[in-house]
Amino acid sequence: MRFEWILDAQYLYSMSAIARIGGTNRYIIYCLVRTVTQNDSGEILISGSPYLIAQPTAYIHKKPDIAYIKEYEKYVEKGLVDEDGNLYV
Length: 89
Prior knowledge:
The protein has helices at residues 12-19, 65-77, and strands at 2-5, 28-38, 44-54. By secondary structure, the protein is an alpha+beta fold. It has a three-stranded mixed sheet with strand order 1-3-2, with no helix packed on it. The relative contact order is 0.18. The mean pLDDT is 79.
């Protein structure tokens, strides 16, 4: 599945200003879906126009602890962890 944004050029400047803010940004994007098509290879293409792009004032990290444990187990399986439990970088 692929999502293609249909943008109006007059709004690109404000988005580039937001992009220059340092740090990791999280956005909430509301959009109008224009078209949904499927090509011969089975890939689905969705085209949409953004209505509202907002940056939330608060964000709650909801990744459960078990996800970190499973992620660490994958690193061990791949041999990316030394004897002290540190990741090879």
